[in-house]
Amino acid sequence: xxxxxxxxxxxxxxxxxxxxxxxxxxxxxxxxxxxxxxxxxxxxxxxxxxxxxxxxxxxxxxxxxxxxxxxxxxxxxxxxxxxxxxxxxxxxxxxxxxxxxxxxxxxxxxxxxxxxxxxxxxxxxxxxxxxxxxxxxxxxxxxxxxxxxxxxxxxxxxxxxxxxxxxxxxxxxxxxxxxxxxxxxxxxxxxxxxxxxxxxxxxxxxxxxxxxxxxxxxxxxxxxxxxxxxxxxxxxxxxxxxxxxxxxxxxxxxxxxxxxxxxxxxxxxxxxxxxxxxxxxxxxxxxxxxxxxxxxxxxxxxxxxxxxxxxxxxxxxxxxxxxxxxxxxxxxxxxxxxxxxxxxxxxxxxxxxxxxxxxxxxxxxxxxxxxxxxxxxxxxxxxxxxxxxxxxxxxxxxxxxxxxxxxxxxxxx
Length: 413
Description:
Elements: E1 8-11, E2 14-17, E3 19-20, H1 22-39, E4 45-49, E5 55-59, E6 61-65, E7 69-75, E8 89-96, H2 117-123, E9 130-134, E10 137-138, E11 140-141, H3 157-173, E12 180-185, H4 189-192, H5 198-201, E13 203-204, E14 206-207, E15 215-216, H6 221-237, E16 242-246, H7 249-257, E17 266-268, H8 273-283, E18 287-293, H9 294-297, H10 315-325, H11 330-337, H12 342-351, H13 355-374, E19 379-386, E20 390-394, H14 398-412
Parallel strand pairs: 9-12, 10-14, 16-17, 16-18, 18-19
Antiparallel strand pairs: 1-2, 3-15, 4-5, 6-7, 7-8, 8-12, 11-13, 19-20
């Protein structure tokens, strides 16, 4: 059973409990398995220091001890974060590496005992060979642009270092000079991965072992932003210079059904439009085209770059301002401000026969705000639609960006 981590953060005036990452679980399981392999004694809990300098003591379960390998698991605890991997078991099977030139042959792959302080000091310099791989339920990298090479297990660099460090530390503590191999697995990960971004990222067969701090902060937006960054890097590594971005499923449906563009070409940015633009500039993208529902993208007309309702609304105010520019009277403006949904406002504008002109004004506002955020070196644009009214408008450079994207898609076929 997972340890309850008594560490809290405050989000929106709520006290929320932190958890620990799959990377921390993998390192802890590997360390416990190595301790049991080298000592021959059962270990029921293990201490591991996270990159955030917090030491956790975690329960160990599902122990299987054999002569030359040991397997055990640590259960993931996500705290109050709505993490799909919460309560999953992360296994590590640690075994001796055979035919290792550094192996202590006189002991036939057994532990070299350290009887004196000088011997312990000598063995501190030992650097045993360490191999870490993924097993059942851990994804495999199939596309370039991710943190690890194609063909590697989806164990991110920080967790990988944690696992390696745990194995080296344990080997040195026991004076073992041979090699150790750890295979990380998560049998539940095969099904869980289907509900994650992994298939879109080119990670097949399982989940990723993740974490940079070792600690999960609840409701963390940073994890989603990091995923967007990873997906952008993958697309750029595939040679795409113009990135196609949608806030969510509506945008992807419009791409597929109306623009006839394959969904694999697009990146979901959720509400993080400003962060996505910033990352595109940082990563060297040449162009970005946002395709989204007016309910989200209308906010760009006021420079609102995080479109989540908790950050700001202003949808009706922006539409009302654009309607004034399009010639709307005061009564029309009042009625727009009383609307609850953008579709209701669009219906009103259509009835007043100023929908087209209002959308032209909105596109000018969106374009100006996108250009300001993207800067001189980024070609950027937007396509805005409604499920009820279809295509509503495009910014000045949208058609040119669409041509570049469709040309890239055609060249891939």
